[in-house]
Amino acid sequence: MTPYWLIRTKRSVWMASQILYVILATCLYTVFLCLTELLIASPWAYVGNVWSQTAASIGYGSNNHLTVPVSIKTMEMTTPYKCAICVVFLMLFYSLFITSVMLVLNLQKGRAGGVVGALLINLYGVLLTPDIFQKIFHLGGGLSYRANVLCGWLSPLNHATFPMHNFGYDYLPQIKISILLFLAMICILLFISRKCIKRYNFTFSQVDES
Question: In angstroms, what CA-CA distances link 42 with 36, 38, 156?
């Protein structure tokens, strides 16, 4: 139906509908994932908005290091429902960032370019971890902490990972900072996509309906 829509409307209107579709589809996918996780975890879920004794024993029982484990930070700074909401929003904005990248690359390089670009960004996030960073550059002592902070700031995937945030003890990005960074990148990418649509050449394959 795209050829008929383009005859009756402007490219900018068509692009706006694509952006709206991307946002709504990503939000719907995130809600679906959350509901699926709720159904899977429901037999073992603790519904109270306080950390259960099991969570406390696991978190505080593993405090054998000089650094403060993120499980303890979380229990001291948030409640379970607030933690869950933060995780959902981080996942949502990361997904919107990836789909925005795919949209721009689809317009510039085709569908294959969008898929490859999204895979490369995810691969970059998976590989840019403190452990790999330390092994490559042979870091130790105080430098390992700096590597952890750098990975937290430089990797989009780490921005979407709840433990890789500042809970008042270090220089990692705060959750609100990560969300603002995702919003800024999404807005920039959507603006670029609007510019790309002006130079995009539509090609339509003829379908034999006989």
Answer: 10, 6, 30
| Rounded mean pLDDT, 192-197 | 86
Using CA atoms, how far residue 164 sits from 94, 113, 153, 167, in Å, is 14, 29, 9, 9
Q: How many whole angstroms from its chain centre is CA 139? A: 28
CA distances for 79 relative to 50, 90, 117, 120, angstroms:
6, 17, 36, 35
Tokens representing 1? 């139906």
Is the pLDDT confidence value at 145 over 50? yes
Return d(Cα 124, Cα 132) in angstroms, integer.
12
- Residue from 22, 39, 207, 171 nearest 105 by CA: 22
The angle at the Cα of 35, spanning 85 to 156, to the nearest 5 degrees, equals 50
| pLDDT score at 66 | 44
According to the model, what pLDDT value does residue 163 have? 81
* Integer CA distances (angstroms), 18 to 4, 113, 121, 171, 199, in order: 15, 18, 22, 38, 16
Taking residues 67-86, report their average pLDDT.
74
Per the CB < 8 A criterion, the answer to whether 140 and 133 are in contact is: no
pLDDT of residue 27: 94
Closest of 145, 151, 153, 169 to residue 73, by C-alpha: 169
In this structure, which amino acid lies at residue 96? L
pLDDT level of residue 73 (50, 70, 90 thresholds): low
The answer to whether the CB of 93 falls within 8 A of the CB of 182 is: yes
